[in-house]
Amino acid sequence: MSDDLTAWPYREARNILDHLQQAEGRGHKSKDDPVILQTGFGPSGLPHVGTFSEVARTSWVRRAFAQICDRPTRLLAFSDDMDGLRKVPENIPNRDMVAEHLGKPLCDIPDPFGEEESFSGYMNARLRSFLDSFGFDYEFLSSKDQYRNGVFNEGLLKILEHYDRVRGIVVRTLSEEKREDWSPFFPVCENCGKVNNTRVTDIHPDDGTVSYVCDQSFRGAEACQHEGTVPVTDGHVKVGWKVDWALRWLQLGVDYEMYGKDLIESAKLSSSIVYALGGVPPAGMSYEMFLDEEAAKISKSKGTGLSIDDWLQYGPLESLAWFIYRRPERAKRLFFDVIPRSTDQYLEALSKFGATDDRRQRMDNPVFFIDADRIDASESIGYDSEVSYSMLLNLVSVLNTDDRQVVWDYLCRYNEEVEEDRELIDDLIDRALRYYRDHVAPSKQYQLPDDDVMPAVEQFRQFLADYDGEDPEEIQSAAYSAGKDHDLDLGRWFKAMYRLLLGQDEGPRLGTFVHFYGVEDTIELIDHQLSEGITDDNSGKAH
Ligand SMILES: [Zn+2]
């Protein structure tokens, strides 16, 4: 029934159906069980655009699933707060204090911000308020609670029972020298509290315990040499992370989880472990990572790339959601210059959504996911105006203004329909003004056309002076002819016009621009720029 829906969240939803069939066939799941979608969070740092992106995408899969199956679903946001701290993050206070606790579970390290009961308590609180601020519907779970409250006990005992098998799956992926000592279990040292320094020396499946010695130096810090025997249950040990992932899938009955491309091999490994323990691993997909301006992978500890707050300065949240929605399997550069295009593509999708009553077409439109809350609240969704973000940027550029009203006056003169989308356009103007001020204005360079280009400028100006229509296509074709008639390379010709009028190498289609800006005003602008607008300091402006 849903086979004709082509958007990727439906593909994922259908994969969940296949997974459920398999899990039910093996008796691991009953038809009454809710369907569990999970997202993971590493609380060694603050939530960031990657966190947002994973929860948003998983929420979209959940929404798609709800369209093709009426079983209840739960979305878990799971925090790995039993993980040992491997490195002190660069962007926190009290780094020296935190450094003393390297190797301890994140939930046992004091909060460097002094607000919560632990390091991970602080990060978890930030995660929740971050997710809440975007209105995500999720349940928060922490590793600490699952381990220490015994939720994972059954799975931990299973791992002990199938110790050699689980160990065998992991060690074949390790280097020769690491194989001998490797154990899926990492006891929390009873003496020093660290989890990254312990090594299992013996296992006792009959009484559910393991013996260990705390002798692995970690990041230069000496280990305490304590020896002991602890139960594998109730949080006395943690399992190594690939096994941890499998444990979580198994014990929480996870049916769907997506992950970054760098974790494909880990996901395969964790799946093998789940099978070895008698379970069925979840459905899931891998997504590509975001890249920064130089096309390098974004580093969250160094804080490279664009933050969500940065984006929201210049583009609406929906434009960021659009950027994240599109082709999760492709690597994308997350930088300022993608904001205008993402905003415009979102506006186009919005406009298409509003223009059709066809339910299938609407369900396949990204807007169906991005604007889910508004759609479910039966708000009218659409966009009728021709005003695009790039057009606003160009308008702001040529008006050289920071006054929203000036921009509005222009829009209203030539485009009566803008009133209908007033609220959205208002918001876009504010963001365009900011974007222009911060990212366009500083690099503007007006330039007079070369002598051989001038006759084409004159011809185009004359066309406008004689023109009494209002068709952007006619204006565009006149601009085109002006270049052609004077044997100019068209790329060079249009670039000359953009440099003259906007102080930029690139710009909108000239016909659309003139239509928007107004024929009279364009003539005035050309005259102004030619006669006195361009000065030595390149500060030419229109008004
Ligand atoms: Zn120790």
Give the total of domains.
Answer: 3
Uncertain stretches: 536-543
**Cofactors and ligands:** zinc ion
Number of helices: 24
What is the CATH topology assignment of the largest domain?
A: Rossmann fold
From the helix content, strand content and strand pairing, which structural class follows? alpha/beta
The count of strands amounts to: 13
Considering the protein shown, what is the CATH homologous superfamily of the largest domain? HUPs
Anisotropy-based shape = elongated
Write down the Rg.
Answer: 30 Å
Q: Work out the strand percent.
A: 5-15%
CATH class of the largest domain: Alpha Beta
Give the averaged pLDDT, no decimals: 91
Main beta sheet, described?
A: 4 strands, parallel
The CA-CA distance between the termini, in Å, is 59 Å
* Helix amount: 40-55%
CATH architecture of the largest domain: 3-Layer(aba) Sandwich
Q: Strand order across the biggest sheet?
A: 3-2-1-9
Task: Spell out the key features of this protein.
Arc Repressor Mutant, subunit A; 3 domains; 543 residues; four-stranded parallel β-sheet; three-stranded antiparallel β-sheet; alpha/beta; 24 helices; binds zinc ion; Rossmann fold
Could you write a compact summary of the structure shown?
By secondary structure, the protein is α/β, with parallel strands linked by helices.
